[in-house]
Amino acid sequence: MTTSRALGDRRVRRTQKALQRALIELVEERDLSRLSVADVAERAGVSRSTFYDHYRDVHELAEAACTVMIDELIGSVPGPGTDATRDAPGKLLAFFTTLAEHAGLYRALLGPSGSARVIDHIRRRATAAGHAGARQAAGESAPDGDPHDVPAAFAAGALVGVAADWLERGCPRTPAEMADLTWPLFVALYRPL
Amino acid sequence: MTTSRALGDRRVRRTQKALQRALIELVEERDLSRLSVADVAERAGVSRSTFYDHYRDVHELAEAACTVMIDELIGSVPGPGTDATRDAPGKLLAFFTTLAEHAGLYRALLGPSGSARVIDHIRRRATAAGHAGARQAAGESAPDGDPHDVPAAFAAGALVGVAADWLERGCPRTPAEMADLTWPLFVALYRPL
DNA sequence: AAACGTAACCTACATATGGAGGAAAACCTA
DNA sequence: TAGGTTTTCCTCCATATGTAGGTTACGTTT
């Protein structure tokens, strides 16, 4: 049992990376719900008890495993201002491209036998990013602590919804087509009545 | 072990209802991830093996337990045509009101320790409903088999996103306020450029 | 009311979970 | 390189999961 969780230690980084890689590999092979901790640990070349030294369950590992990718992904969320929406089409294209590159992984994580933990993580990040974009566009600099921003939550949910739907159907369109279809919907949100 | 699954039998309905009630009760008390099958079965006054006669796991039960509520809820999804959007404000109000009535349940199911199964179910239903509404509004009667409708997926995800965000924050606004804030966003989606 | 069908229950079992304590190995610092 | 520190691993253990077979009790049907 450990208390300090020193990230500087080479062993920790090595172990966590191995577990994250193993999970990503396995999730592309079989259903998340059919993955045991023992499976992941074995694939990572790590003991089962070491797994529990780092993560409470498979979902927590899954969240950690795609946090980096998700943060890149979330750079693509269009915010509700001119500033943020300026280069948004390119960002949306990047979003769907990245998604397509890891289609198996994200389909497994966002689908019915996926992880509510991961879904919530993505939605939350996207909401925060959308809100930050809006604040920036409105010229507000006050760092208000994550208030209730309905349009941001709306856009974030929409992004997740479009992604999950597209992945579930086996990516029937190219990332470019998806970006072209989705972009006007985001634009419409931020157009005055 | 049974094979025919006769729904006409009084015992089946009784058992399933008891399990669904028990799950709803328990999910309001503690986290879904902390619920064991034994807990649910005991609360329902049913043996653990009977649980497995009806559901494969807790998530499948959760999905079944709120299917009826969800179907009522989904009646509130605005579709992209004039027909569907006509009475949509009232439907949105109903949506948020119902959500608030079962806030504990839905917060638990849609949040980070919730059920991807339930989330996916809701999103799927809402997408299908949105698509049906759009088809109806466009005067199309051909029963095409659930094609890729990006705006419908967008709106469905947005609805889930707004709901999850609102519930996670402890419902900081009234259902009426939420309906008023959300309604123009849906309208914007279906307004021509 | 009797007979049939099936749901509910019980027992048993192999596996998975989650955690505790302690020994060994690897790391960082001096 | 010697020191102490922290991680990893091993072994247990109590509980939970998921499945199977057989028995009892209930509901439906005639």
Automatic annotation (TrEMBL), chains A, B:
Boundaries of every HTH tetR-type domain copy: 13-73
Keywords: DNA-binding
One Gene Ontology term of the molecular function aspect: DNA binding
Pfam families: TetR_C_8, TetR_N
Gene3D superfamilies, per database record: Tetracycline Repressor, domain 2 (1.10.357.10)
Residue ranges: DNA binding: 36-55
Protein name: AcrR family transcriptional regulator
Organism listed in the record: Streptosporangium saharense
